[in-house]
Structures are given as C-alpha cells and as structure tokens.
Amino acid sequence: MTSEQSKSDISRARILDAAAKMFRQKGYAATTLIEIARAAGMQAGSLYYHFGSKDELLEEVLDIGMRRVHEAVEESQERLPADSSHRDRIRVAVEAHLTTLLKHDDYTSANIRIFGQVPEEVQQHHIRQRDAYAELWRHIFTKAQKSGALSSDVNLGVVRMLLMGALNWSVEWYRPGRTSIQAIADHMCLMLFNGVGIEEPAQSRENETVT
Amino acid sequence: MTSEQSKSDISRARILDAAAKMFRQKGYAATTLIEIARAAGMQAGSLYYHFGSKDELLEEVLDIGMRRVHEAVEESQERLPADSSHRDRIRVAVEAHLTTLLKHDDYTSANIRIFGQVPEEVQQHHIRQRDAYAELWRHIFTKAQKSGALSSDVNLGVVRMLLMGALNWSVEWYRPGRTSIQAIADHMCLMLFNGVGIEEPAQSRENETVT
DNA sequence: TCGTAAATCTAATGTACGTTCGAAACATGT
DNA sequence: ACATGTTTCGAACGTACATTAGATTTACGA
C-alpha cells in the first residue's frame, strides 16, 4: 500500500490494456475472458476480483477510449493561441483525433470499431459521452462557418460526419511505417479546405497555376 | 421443380437476408443461428440443409455484399458516355457506392461493418475480392490524376482511403429521411474536388470571390 | 515471525450455442 | 393414390463460455 500504484491498480491496468487490445482486434462477443486473462497474465476467474462482469469491463474500456480522444481534441484547442485562424483550429483537432486513434491507443480505436455492435444496454450508457464529443466538433465547425472560414451553403452536419468517417475509418487500414499520421492529417485538411480537384482543362483557358 | 424459384432457393434467400440483416446489426459472433432461423421462419437445425456451417453462411453474405457494390460501381462507369469528365466518373462512382451501401443493402453494409472482426480464415478467403474492388477505385483515381483532373502532388492512396472511409462510415450514422443519399454524395464530391474552406479574410486582400 | 488483508488460483456450475441426425411433413411426378 | 425426393422439425450432444466460491498464495504492517 506504500507505492502510489498498488498491485491492484497495476493488475487492473493490465487487464484493461489486454481487453482494449483484443476487443479492438476481434470485437466484443468474439473475445473471451480466458484470452483477456491470459494476455494479462492471470486466470479468468481472477478478473472478477477487479471487475464485476465482462460487460463492466467493456464499459470501462469504452469510457476510457472516448475520454482520451475527447481530452486530446479539447487540449488541442486550449493549447492554441486565442487568435488562431479557424483553419488552424480545425487542423489541430484533426491531428489530435487522428493521433489518439492511431498511436498506441487501443481504447479509442476499440471504442470506434466495436461500439455499433455492443449490447444495446451498454450503448445507452455511453450515448451522453458520445454526444458530448460530437458537440465539441460541432462547436468548432459552427464557429468556423459563422466567421466565414467554411462555406455557408453546405450542411455542416454532413461535412462533419464525412470528416469523422474519413478519420475513423483509418483504424481499418492504417499500418505504422507506411504513411505518417501527419501526412494523413495533412491530406484530410487539404481535402476539407481546398479539395484535390483541378479545373478540368476541358477547353483549356489559363494553365498558369498547374505545374 | 417447375418454378424457376424452387422452394429451396426461396428459403436460402430468406436465410441469407436474415443473416445479413443481423450480422450487420449485431456483428457476427453476437448473432446466433437461432435468431437467424427465427427471422427466416424456421428452426435452427433446418439451416443446415442449406448451409454447411455458420461460417459458410457468413462467407456467402460477405461475398454477396462485396459483389453488389463492385458491380454497382462498375456499371456506373459503363453507363457513362465514353468522353465523360473524370469528375463525373468519380461522382457517379461515389453515388453508386453510397447508394448500394445505404439503400436496402444489408449485405454490403454487413460486409463493411463486420469484416474486420470476422475469423481470420474467413478474411483470407475474401482478400482477393476486396483487392479487386480497391483496384477498381485505384484505376478511376489514377486515370483522373494522370489526365490532370486531380492534383498531381497528393498521395492518391491516402486520398482514396479517406474517401472510402467517409463513405463507409455513413453506415454508422445514416438514417433514412434526414439527409438524402444524393445530398451526402454531393457534399462528398464537393469536399473532394473543391473543399469547403473559404479564403480567410485574415488581413483581407481581395474580397471579390466571396459572397 | 506472525497475522491479516489483498490478490490470485482452481475447480465446479449452469447455460447458451453450433451442430448432428433420424423422424415427420411436404411437394411432385406417375 | 402411391412413391420418391425435398424440406423442415425436434430433440439430443458436446463444447465453450461467463460466472461463482472456497482454497491458496502473496504482500506487508506490527
């Protein structure tokens, strides 16, 4: 009881880490407590000293995952100078979301991957938290649009969902070592702000801007 | 044996429909054969007259789902006049993908939602099919870039994955009746080609183009 | 060194599920 | 009406799993 990290805390953390990792990989229903326990270095029965049930364990994984990405994006905004451009505000939010997702965070990616297939009762418990995170983004986007940084004649809700989708889906294809997280964020922002299309030189008017 | 649709074929289809629907909703492992059978109007044991195992049933659902979206996008290209712009080619591909996904197709959305959490052996069986679909998109994008319709200094692979993510993620949030599928496709293409950003009037140079 | 509480183990329990198989019901051609 | 093939039923089997509870070990203060 002397160290700030009691043995119980350490075991708890190991269990959560293992659970997040496996939930993310195989989904909730397909992951067995035996596997989680083994990955955490103990027997299945021992899990019940730390968690009341498999569902409870799941809920904590989901909670941690959402909290982490929420805090990361929130902090990205607070770290920014007060007079930053709205493009920069969105840019760092994108970077924060993506980095949390792809850099060692099994919790957040587990949340994103499995949430839709989790027992309905568990989903209900987390709707508030999800809404709060959505609200954070909605706020950033609305401010940007009102101040003229985003086109005023687009449906911001749709744009936001498409953006979140593009980012979230990266957990399905991103593999460390190929494309950097920064490069993905850059491409995302480029698409969002400027698009990657070029005036089609159909009849060809002026060809100065293109290399 | 007289009708072109034998009783067996009808039952088979009912089972597949039920399976696709439930796989999509609850995931593979969490869906029981008892539920599928009930939704198809029969007993669990009867499923085995039509399918060798739960995995086999899953594989057929996945196969149908991928085939449908592949064919839809392929046909969208063939239907187009040969001299169509590359923007139009991409636009109809986006529309085809999205429409297949969101309009009654539990098969395709089941595939997209659960593929990452399906037994590894089953995944292996479908990699070829997935690659073929990716190749279809890669081809469309590469042609567009080579002919100057897409910026030449972006990583096309990343752009393509971000686009697919934005589209695929719609199965997580789209609900019929709110935003039309067409509107989503339009927003996606607008983002892809032009972006939704507006020149920030930070120090304000020329304000002619903005309303 | 001892005693107590914390942490884990081990074995058992009940249940839900995938699967099997012979019997029953159904359809169809003669 | 019969016979044969098709389709579904219903009950049973084995297994894998979440969960429980008492025994056992470990950590640690007195």
TrEMBL record, chains A, B:
Keyword Transcription part of the UniProt annotation: yes
Keywords: DNA-binding, Repressor, Transcription, Transcription regulation
GO molecular function, one term: transcription cis-regulatory region binding
Gene3D superfamilies: Homeodomain-like (1.10.10.60), Tetracycline Repressor, domain 2 (1.10.357.10)
Top-rank lineage group of the source organism: Bacteria
Chain residues forming the annotated DNA-binding region: 32-51
The HTH tetR-type domain, residue ranges: 9-69
Protein's UniProt name: Transcriptional regulator
